[in-house]
Amino acid sequence: MIDTDASLTPALLRRDRQDALAAWADYLAGGLRSLHIDRRTVAEFCSTLYDGMVEALESGSGGLPQDLQDLLSSLSVEFAERGQAPSLTATFVFSLRHVLGERHGHAAMAAVGLQKLIDAMGLHSMDAFIGRREQIIRRQSQELLDVSVPVVPLWEGILSLPIIGTLDSTRAQAVTEKLLFEIARTGARHAILDISGVPTVDTQTAQHLAKTVAAARLMGAECIITGIRPAIAQVVVALGIDLSGIQTRFSLAEGLRYCFAQRNLAVAPKA
Fold it and tell me: Which positions carry the signal peptide feature in this UniProt record (predicted)?
């Protein structure tokens, strides 16, 4: 440990730089080994953060310089994309307080400006981490939504849209938009909405389906709802949901047969 009676000035922190960085890297090495972050990367982060902290103390501005904010953000993004908890990013920064406390003793604890700066660094890293994690969640949610709304061409002029899972407002909007887009793109005149993968149908789900059917009808396409299982049929009747204005069939095959009949098509065995 260095002289604990000395005032912890930026000049003293610069003189102790190499030893402090080595101690910091050692302190972090065990906890970050499981994340497959090599020691060289850890050392680079520590070195740049340490220098940025000293420069911020020398400037006396009391805030975080932009380059230090950018570095903290990049560190947070690194951890967020590895799927780690936000506490890990804060621990990376706050561990510097522990290292300085061991090396400088009371002088480190009495350096109010240094303590405030480390706190600001830790809070900024957590904010950046949470912001990045929210971006990742939004992107993944949109990707899942796109995958969960596939419109499949079954025949010329006939589309199929299998719906799997609960049909909430967000998915219902995506279903309607995707279906109308494909109707406009392909000029289809029939669309089969297969709900065999929907666990249950309530009033809200039925309303979403009815709105989708009505929107498609305005574009000149007829929708057929298939996959209505006995349990769903009982729920629809018990809730008093009126689907009389919509063509319904038990299975996708029955729905496709109806579309063929409407288009004067028939499937026959090969002679």
Answer: none
Scan for tokens 């996959």, then name that residue.
Answer: 227
Residues of the chain with pLDDT under 70: 1-7, 30-38, 61-62, 109-110, 140-148
Q: How is residue 96 written in tokens? A: 């510097």
Nearest 10 degrees: Cα torsion 150, 154, 157, 160: -40
Q: What pTM does this model have? A: 0.53
Query: Which string of DSSP letters, residue by residue, matches 224-252?
Result: EEE---HHHHHHHHHHT---TTSEEESSH
**Can you give the three-state secondary structure of 138-201, one letter per residue?**
HHHHHHHHHHCCCCEEEECCEEEEEEECCCCHHHHHHHHHHHHHHHHHHCCCEEEEEEEECCCC
Q: Read off the pLDDT of residues 11-53 as tens digits, 9 standing for 90 and up.
A: 888 888 899 888 888 887 766 655 556 677 777 878 888 888 8
Residue count of the chain, please give it.
271
What gap in Å lies between CA 108 and CA 46, rounded to an integer?
18
Distance CA 253, CA 224 (A): 12
Give the count of alpha carbons within 13 A of 169, CB side only: 0
Backbone angles phi, psi at 152, to 5 degrees: -110, 125
The domain locations on the chain are 10-146, 152-262
**Half-sphere exposure (Cβ direction) of 6: Cα atoms closer than 13 Å:** 13
Q: Would you give the distance in Å from CA 264 to the centre of its chain? A: 47
Determine whether domain 152-262 maps to CATH 3.30.210.10: no
